[in-house]
From TrEMBL:
Keywords: Fatty acid metabolism, Lipid metabolism, Lyase, Transit peptide
Name of the featured protein: Enoyl-CoA hydratase domain-containing protein 3, mitochondrial
Keyword Lipid metabolism: yes
Function noted in UniProt: May play a role in fatty acid biosynthesis and insulin sensitivity.
Organism name: Ferrovibrio terrae
């Protein structure tokens, strides 16, 4: 799949575009290296996420896409082998882990737009996104076991998206999963024809961007905070969140608009 039509290829590792108001598309742009996560690529993507977080309500949804024949092949193994050593490896995986956590912690929902292959840390990136739309030709894998390097950091995101047995099967076999199977086990939300992939991801982003940005921010943060809590603690926490949400102006407006059978006018407060 080629780069999105509103992007012009250049030497930047990550391209930024705004296909619709309130929506930002970040495109991984190392097509010859299958968008492998070099230090430069991760640094550029981290910078974009930090800028989006600082932009607050001007950005409502983020799409992460990729140029060239595949989504992301994982870490740049040539770069890794050129810089061996414990300190270098620790720094690399620390940077990657911080990047993945930044995707989860971003107030705005993040949608992965996946074509080609998403493997190892590329699969980790898909699993770290809040939602994922995949081309019907896309494939997913955590193949580190095949080269003597278990996908331990991708395992963190993967095991929080699919069941333990499905995660272990991917991690222990390294097999490529077709998009339909990835949807069955919960790794992606939707599978669409490759020709309509960008439009499908954008349509989902537009649907979410139409909601109250405050409500979406509250909901995303609450989801990730409660998901690993014991049941009673999760309900106590969620009840406090809903109380605060009910006191927000957007909740008052949304309820009034529903009762009055009109479209709400969000203020983001």
């Amino acid at each position: 799949m080629s780069a999105a039509p509103d992007l012009k290829p250049n030497d930047q590792p990550v391209l930024r575009a705004q296909p619709e108001a309130g929506i930002v598309r970040l495109t991984l742009n190392r097509p010859k290296a299958y968008n492998s996560l070099s230090v430069g690529m991760m640094t550029a993507l981290q910078a974009e996420l930090d800028a989006i977080k600082a932009a607050r309500d001007s950005v409502k949804v983020v799409i992460i896409a990729a140029s060239g024949p595949g989504f992301c092949a994982g870490h740049d193994l040539k770069e890794v082998r050129a810089n061996p050593g414990r300190q270098q490896y620790e720094a690399l995986f620390r940077q990657c882990s911080m990047l993945m956590q930044s995707v989860v912690a971003l107030p705005q929902p993040v949608i992965a737009q996946v074509h080609g292959v998403a493997s190892a840390a590329g699969c980790q990136l898909v699993a770290s996104c809040d939602l994922a739309v995949a081309a019907d030709t896309a494939r997913f894998a955590t193949p580190g076991v095949n080269i003597g390097l278990f996908c331990s950091t991708p395992m963190v995101a993967l095991s929080r998206n699919v069941s333990r047995k499905h995660a272990m099967e991917m991690l222990l076999t390294g097999d490529l999963l077709p998009a339909a199977r990835a949807a069955e086990i919960g790794l992606v939300n939707r599978v669409v024809p490759e020709a309509g992939l960008a439009d499908a991801a954008l349509a989902l982003a537009i649907q979410i961007a139409a909601k109250s940005p405050l409500t979406v921010k509250i909901g995303k943060e609450a989801f990730y905070r409660q998901v690993d809590m014991p049941l009673a603690q999760a309900y106590d926490y969620a009840s406090r969140v809903m109380t605060e949400n009910m006191l927000a102006r957007d909740a008052e407006e949304g309820i009034d608009a529903f009762i009055e059978k009109r479209d709400p006018k969000w203020e983001g407060r």
